[in-house]
Amino acid sequence: MLKILNLALVAIGIGLPNLVPASDSPPVQSKTGTNTAAEASPLESSGRSLPVLNPVVITGTRTEQSSFSLPMSIDVVETKVIQEVQPRVNLSEALSRVPGLVIQNRQNYAQDLQISSRGFGARSTFGIRGIRIFVDDIPATMPDGQGQAANINLGSTKRIEVLRGPFSAIYGNASGGVIQAFTEDGPNETTLSGTLLGGSYGTSRGEIKLGGTLGGTDVISGPFNYVVDISRFQTSGYRDHSAATRYQASAKATYRFDHDANLTLVVNELHQGNTQDPLGLTQAQVIENPRQADISAHTFNTRKSIDNTQGGAVYEHRFSASNKIKLIGYAGTRQLEQFLAVPRGAQIPATSSGGVVDLDRQFGGAGLRWTYRSMGERPFTLTAGIEYEIFKERRKGFENFSGAILGVRGGLRRNENNTVSSLSQYGQAEWHFTQSWALSAAVRYTNVKFKSEDFFVRPGNADDSGSLTFRNVNPVLGLLYKATSTLNLYASGGWGFETPTFTELAYRPDGASGLNFSLRPSESRNIEVGFKWLATDNTRLNLALFESVVTDEILPATNIGGRATFQNATDTRRRGIELAAVHRFGADLSAYFSYTFLDARFRDSYTYQPRAGTPFVIVAEGNLVPGIPRNTAYGELAWRRGLPGFSAVIEAIYRDRVYANDINTEAAKQYAIANIRLAYSHQLGRLKLSEFIRIDNVSNAKYVGAVIVNEGNERFYEPSAGRNVIVGLNASYVF
User: Fold this and answer.
1) Mean pLDDT to the nearest integer, 189-218
2) Which of 152, 111, 107 is nearest to 129 (CA)?
3) How big is the CA angle at 239 (ends 160 and 90), to the nearest 5 degrees?
4) Could you report the per-residue pLDDT of 502-555, keeping only the tens digit for each?
């Protein structure tokens, strides 16, 4: 830790003179729709709000509290950053600014973004794992730890909270972090708004949104509040064979029975049909032509179709000033069809699952949470809850050819029913035992059950049915010291865990039948120390030093007979620094800077077989964990003059070299890019218009935006677009 502390001091000494920090987001609203004293922001004489330096957050403690007073790393990204002059398609648009978080845009809508938090989740080759994702308290992550970000509708998202470090374990199967999105409330008056944009590579997006409050003059007195958002996104893609069309719809309705009880209903729909998958490229292919798709993508017409529909209800009731409950229930369905580039050989192994994935899943869950809060000289808060999650899926696999025709559904190669369920209980408390000291403690017990029923049993393909149960108890402890009214010091520590996903459990390295019974959850020991400093009325600095030691890391084992298998191979260690600085120069001008140093290494050597027909390789002790840049930085300078007026934002992003495989023989080079966003807003009676232009990668840098970790065919690289432009119009009318 002394090395980390020394690096932190160097970072501060070098960075602060040049820091031009942060977000000019509007005040955060609490669940009741009113601002608390902690989140209120001062106003200039013009009436425009200044950036919030001390927002109220819910993630981390599940109760509304100032982020400044919590012993954990938690950042808030507000409406202006999420929606203003943004395509509102990918989380990378808004979350690249968060320290400790790395979001790699694959330029591939068939595989979603790659998101890692302090290095957790970096090895995921598709979807998101190791990080829990929530939308309005409803999980977007399945109980086995696999999640998707595409169903977050950014067009109606008012804020996103990002939690890293030890307290992430209180949300369950997520060692690395928690991302929670909150949908905006409808405005006080009925408002119809829309967005049209178009740009490079055949990109277009249209959105229409309607919201309002019925039965009263505002969200507090009105019994019914609603917002409905529908959008269509289309792109031809930067790379060949990467076209995509996405339809999204979301709705949120809140009915307030009285000042103590309300019911919120949310519905989300995502449809992506025949989304093309260009696959990764080898290093030689990137040099030759970064826009190409691998020949196998054309040969087998690799593509993916998704239909995801889910809805939920959240009921809140306050029994007294000290006691309240929250009841959550949700359900959904997900259908997926994916065509892979599995070669058609003369002899296909009997164990191969084929090149077409057919998935039909139903999922749901429920949770009950009770909160007790006492005020006075020694405030105390206690939260206790129980949660149940489950998904049931029918998974089939087919050959990706029929006779001589490639890229079509052929014969059946896999047929099974899979079920994963999770039952958890947790408790969390915060106690300000003196005026200067506050203690936070939490514990969570999680029981995750896996069950598979194999219906495709043939000679050479034995019965792979089986069941497994994993149990974990995760305690967390944090201590906060209020050194002054503007400086808080803190330390926290705890244990986290990450179960294998069903994909990793499906097959055994020894080729025997049944689930991979030897595979266990990886467990992590996490510590964090830091400070939060309101240096002036207009400046805030956050610094965190952290270390995570992961035992039984889940890593590749073999790739034989068309089956990838996994093992608990070795331990890893992650050490790093996160620095964020925010400064506002007034109502018009603000700046932001964040920096992350992360050193993630294997603590022991291990062996694995990278692909069929090749010898086992040795991963040396001390190798860097792939998919994780050692240094990342983000800077932003924003000038917003309000209505009517002009706004401009300049942002810069730096990513260090990223290794693509465990043996550290392949890597994507470091890169730096700059983006510019310009908008002009004006009011015409009840009509508000905003014209905007966005220029990404202004210098036209050639770079690889994402790597596919340990890709079996050594097609590790997914290049990103050169200079590209988006122009658009936002309009809203108040009735």
Assistant:
1) 92
2) 111
3) 5
4) 888 988 888 788 889 899 999 999 999 999 999 999 999 999 999 999 999 999
Going by C-alpha positions, the residue among 203, 192, 210 that lies closest to residue 233 is 203
What is the rounded end-to-end Cα distance, in angstroms, of the chain?
Answer: 59
Return d(Cα 679, Cα 404) in angstroms, integer: 54
Place of tokens 């998958």: 277
CA pseudo-torsion sign 691, 155, 325, 496: negative
Residue type, 538: N
Burial-class residue 460 by CB neighbours within 10 Å (0-12, 13-18, 19+): exposed
The residue whose two tokens read 């017990």 is 445
Q: Is 264 exposed, middle or buried (0-12, 13-18, 19+ CB in 10 A)?
A: buried
What pTM was computed for the model?
0.90
Cα–Cα nearest to 127, from 144, 110, 139, 143: 110
Question: Quick one: which H or E segment has residue 683?
Answer: strand 671-684
Pair of tokens at residue 315:
């009921």
Question: Under DSSP, is residue 434 helix (H, G, I), strand (E, B) or coil?
Answer: coil
Mean pLDDT, the chain, integer? 88
Compute the average pLDDT of residues 452-478. Answer: 93
Report the half-sphere exposure of 711 (CA within 13 A, side-chain side).
22
Rounded to an integer, what distance in angstroms lies between the CA atom of residue 198 and that of residue 203? 5
Structure tokens at 664: 């550290």
Tokens in use for 175? 């060692």
Residue type for position 29: Q
Does the bond joining 143 to the residue before it have cis omega, within 30 degrees of 0?
no
DSSP labels, 528-572: EEEEEEEEETTEEEEEEEEEEEEEEEEEEEEEETTEEEEEEEEEE
Task: Report which of 466, 563, 580, 460 is spatially closest to residue 514, judged by C-alpha positions.
Answer: 466
Question: CB-based contacts of 258: which residues, under 8 Å, 6+ apart?
Answer: none
The model's pLDDT over 159-182, given as tens digits with 9 standing for 90+, comes to 999 999 999 999 988 778 999 999
Distance, in Å, from the CA atom of 328 to the CA atom of 263, rounded to the nearest integer, reads: 10
Whether the pLDDT of residue 4 is over 90: the answer is no
609-653 pLDDT, tens digit each: 887 778 889 999 999 999 999 999 999 999 987 667 899 999 999
Where residue 23 falls among pLDDT bands split at 50, 70, 90?
very low
pLDDT at 395: 95
**Helix (H/G/I), strand (E/B), else coil: 17:** helix
Domains of the chain: 53-734 (2.40.170.20)
Q: What CA–CA distance (Å, rounded) separates 273 from 306?
A: 6
pLDDT, mean of residues 329-341: 95
- Paired sense of beta strands 128-129 and 645-655, if any: unpaired
Task: Measure the CA–CA gap between 198 and 273, rounded to whole angstroms.
Answer: 21
The whole-number average pLDDT for the span 703-720 is: 92
Task: Cite the beta strand spans of 375-508 per DSSP E.
Answer: 380-398, 401-402, 405-406, 412-431, 437-454, 466-484, 487-498
Sign of CA dihedral 613, 615, 619, 624: negative
What pLDDT is stored for residue 345 in this prediction? 65
